[in-house]
Amino acid sequence: MTDVIIAGGGPTGVMLACELRLHGVRALVLEKEAEPTRIVRALGLHARSIELMDQRGLLDRFLALGKRYPVGGFFAGIAKPPLDRLDTAHPYVLGIVQTATERLLNERAAELGVEIRRRCELVGLSQDDEGVTAELADGTRLRSRYLVGCDGGRSTVRRLLGVGFPGEPTRVETLLGEMELTATPETLAAVVAEVRKTQLRFGAMPLGDGLYRVGVPAEGVAPDRSVPPTLAEFKRQLRAHAGTDFGVHSPRWLSRFGDATRLAERYRVGRVLLAGDAAHVHPPTGGQGLNLGLQDAFNLGWKLAAAVGGWAPEGLLDSYQTERQPVAASVLDNTRAQMELMSTEPGSQAVRRLVSELMDFPEVHRYLIEKVIAIGIRYDFGEGHELLGRRLRDVPLKQGRLYERMHGGRGLLLDQTGRLSVAGWADRVDHIVDTSEELDVPAVLLRPDGHVAWTGDDQQDLLGHLPTWFGAPAA
After folding, report:
1. Amino acid 356: pLDDT
2. What's the pLDDT at 180?
């Protein structure tokens, strides 16, 4: 019996496996596809996901393959100057294609000893008090203590669990692909700029070596959206919207995506959980999908490891749904709003103009952008200091910086008093005595995901909070 089976080898599943391995949990990833996909749906990482990579010592790898862009124009494509003084040490968007992100995560998984089995499709599951039995398409049965469905919006795990997935079906569809074209860069830029004055789902972005990423609204919603569009369909829609097909040819891949918006009613059924697109789907506006899944994995990983390790306090694993489901609901709402603002209907365009005016107020612009880049999230830990429940940005310390001390995925007590102790929890919580000019509390207790669980300077008060997140003290 392995500890955790993860169905789905995309970014969410592999990130989760890496988090589990930091705690010595045996993780087996099952992926039905024989090879990594060439389809690039996500184009970058937002600030909170960049922070996650920094907290685990992976950021340099991503920076080497990506390009930094100012944070601006990410809410419904409304162009505004980049914001300054964001509450993060990483106030930028990292442009990096999904295929590169997946490759880096797979390399990290290999370093940590994660087993990834391809051509393994889960078709059935059952569970009891001791664990979960997974049935594969070839008849193989595997046993684990827990199973997590990270298998996408058409999740087999979610369907087998009978978990409801209410929401709205796709109403508008967009064709997407990578291809070559014969039009000159000047012609392409001029036509795209003109069309995007009214149709923001249209675009063509150079990728280098004569290759372009092209997107165009579809004529309607395909009866079977799993069937990719043809090049002829692509050309027809380009001519309909731009008056030219730019001479597109030699496609690397073609795909379609819609604006379906759905949220799983439950994230956990017994020993089986859902994460990433298996738990929520939404339009790609703002580039939030991959990021939301990575952040699900970051929240779940240490909690599931605690359950496997036997030290999880009561309710810790259930807090995954309590914390992450509202975050997903908020993302669904903001993408719904963005889709309305991108509509060509006169009423939607009137609201877009009004929202654009409101975003000239820095507070409004900041509020909306923080929603997209996920640094404004605050989990409900009850009353307390304004930092409570929020993630703490990477603050400089007298000896280094905060995120450098979080690579192991453990809890952390940053103690500026030098008088506190985590005796009894030293196997789960690191104790660092150091100071930061940017931290105005005597001490702060961070969960492994970087969210603030306690602030103060009283040892007895600290002892009252450690068990909430890190279980009973060691004997």
Report:
1. 95
2. 95
